[in-house]
Amino acid sequence: MKGETDESRATLGSRLSAVLVAAGSAVGLGNIWRFPAMAGDNGGGAFLLLYILCVIVLGLPLMLAEFSVGRASRRNAVGAYRKLDRRWSFLGYNSVLVAFLILGFYYVVSGWTLEYFVHSVTGTIGRYDTPDAYRGIFENFRIHPWRPTVYAWIFVLITHGVIALGVRRGIERSAKFLMPLLFVVLVVLAGHSLLMPDSDEGVRFLLRPDFSKVTPRTVLAALGQAFFSLSIGMGCMITYASYFNKETDLRRTAVNVAVLDTVVALLAGLAIFPAAYSAGIFSSAEVPTAGPDLVFITLPALFNSMAWGGLWAAVFFLLLVVAALTSTLSLHEVVTAYLHEEWCMSRKGAAGLTTVSMLFLSALASLSLGMLSDWRICGLTIFDSLDFLTANILMPVGGLLTSIFVGWRFERRLLRRELGIRGRQRSGRLTFLLFMLRWVCPVILLAVFLDNLGLL
Ligand code: PFF
Predict the structure, then answer these.
(1) Is 229 near ligand 1, meaning CB less than 6 Å away?
(2) Mean pLDDT across the chain, nearest whole number?
(3) Which residue among 5, 20, 24, 203 sits deepest, i.e. has the most Cβ atoms within 10 Å of its Cβ?
(4) 300 CB within 6 A, ligand 1
(5) Cα–Cα nearest to 125, from 3, 302, 366
(6) Which residues pair with 44 in a beta bridge?
(7) Ligand 1 atom having least distance to the Cα of 323
(8) Per-residue pLDDT tens for 15-31?
(9) What distance in angstroms lies between residue 100's CA and the mean position of ligand 1's atoms?
(10) pLDDT digit string (tens) for 365-400?
(11) How confident is the model at residue 1 (pLDDT cuts 50, 70, 90)?
(12) What are phi and psi of 377, to 5 degrees?
């Protein structure tokens, strides 16, 4: 191997750190903004049930697969596959590419959360009366020639600062501080929302299963959301697991991460819908609940109608900033670790090169919503192309090939060792996992991929 040797490679200090950093990657904008909006649009509790099923059937086996690949090889995503089976190195390149492209637009949205946080703190967010006014503000902000780009850059530079400090001093230390902070803030917000008068209607909206809204598309939406939310198919879990110590129990870590990720998504829904119903903000059909509109239009209007609205807005956007940061850290690390180990660069140099590329890509993605909206790839803006290419093509293909690799090619001895399955005692679990990885995951992911391309 080029770059670091095994002995000099960073290792996380404790098993708790392993859970915190991996949960940091999983818990992100996907949980706090995308999940509630999707559940609201797709039958509430019915979507939740489907989502949990996807996490158990596909998410957990694939997370275990990525954890095993990472810790067995103790390499970045490309180096991991190269070490285990040279012919599969391309899968590592796919992971690094997905992480790189996702970062391009994730930084833009993270920048928006930072700008809204700043406006909440300075009080400028509380100046308007109607959701329509907030829509105008958001639309103008998104297409502004430089403001969103500058905020995306600030986010890139904050992430760079942590990554450049290294795995132990940067990523691990920040996860130990940011993840508890995120939970406390979220519990406070959900508690406040649930205590508002007539909040039960919002709880019912989120949790009552409405199976009439479930279609095959809903299943695919739940699956895509589960993948994105668990950070699967883009090398994050491989890279982070390569830093886990030998004592870390991969099965328990994967279950903890999946549970934490789902609990955060649910709490985010409970922080949003009961308060929104209580304030009567959802009684109008005009009020947007989907996509970025929920967070950047509906919620600011909601906070404005509450007592101490400015404070709640600041707390909520702080939550989004923290969640986004722990995820950008993991994606930035995938690219940094690759450059550091495969291109023989110093860690600081690798982080710097990733950062400079991200300043460029995030600016392009951000400007493509305004000034550069004429620059199109197959009819899509640069921002939308990055989203489409990663979510619909590269991620499902990455998941599909990872399950095939670990199910069929990965040495059984190594898999047993990594999963702590010894002797005959627990062989049933291994057989079950292999069955999922060999047959169930590939078939479902192939269907998802073909459907995304409109071929099914
Ligand atoms: N899981 C993160 C979220 O839910 O927002 C996003 C993400 C992070 C996706 C890291 C992919 C990844 F590799």
Answers:
(1) yes
(2) 92
(3) 24
(4) no
(5) 302
(6) 209
(7) 5
(8) 999 999 999 999 999 99
(9) 12
(10) 999 999 999 999 999 999 999 999 998 889 999 999
(11) very low
(12) -120, 115
327 lines ligand 1 (CB under 6 A): yes
Residue 240 in contact with ligand 1 by CB distance below 6 A:
no
Tokens describing residue 162: 């942590």
Q: Which residues of 367-402 are buried (b: 16+ CB within 10 A; e: fewer)?
A: bbbbebeeeeeeeebbbbbbbebbbbebbbbbbbbb
CA of 148 to the centre of ligand 1 (A): 21
Q: pLDDT tens digits for 246-261?
A: 999 999 999 999 999 9
- Contact of 32 with 268, CB cutoff 8 Å: yes
Task: Say which amino acid occupies 173.
Answer: R
103 lines ligand 1 (CB under 6 A): no
Distance CA 94, CA 110 (A): 24
109's tokens: 């949205």
394 lines ligand 1 (CB under 6 A): no
Whole-angstrom Cα Rg for the chain: 21
- Model-level pTM greater than 0.85? yes
Asked whether 22 and 253 are in contact (CB, 8 A), the reply is yes
| Sign (positive or negative) of CA dihedral 32, 33, 35, 40 | positive
**Would you tell me how many other CB atoms lie within 10 Å of the CB of residue 147?**
17
Q: What are the CA-CA distances from residue 175 to residues 14, 253, 308, 336 (Å)?
A: 12, 15, 29, 18
Q: Which residue has the tokens 């960073």?
A: 10
Q: What are the φ and ψ backbone dihedral angles of 231, each rounded to 5 degrees?
A: 55, 45
- Please name the residue whose Cα sits nearest to atom 9 of ligand 1: 231
Q: How far is CA 147 from CA 93, 176, 365, in A?
A: 33, 31, 13
Structural domains in the chain, sorted by start: 15-452 (1.20.1740)
| CA torsion through residues 414, 415, 420, 423, sign | negative
The verdict on the CB of residue 391 being under 6 Å from ligand 1 is no
> Is the C-beta atom of 262 inside 6 A of ligand 1?
no
**380: phi then psi, degrees, rounded to nearest 5:** -105, 150
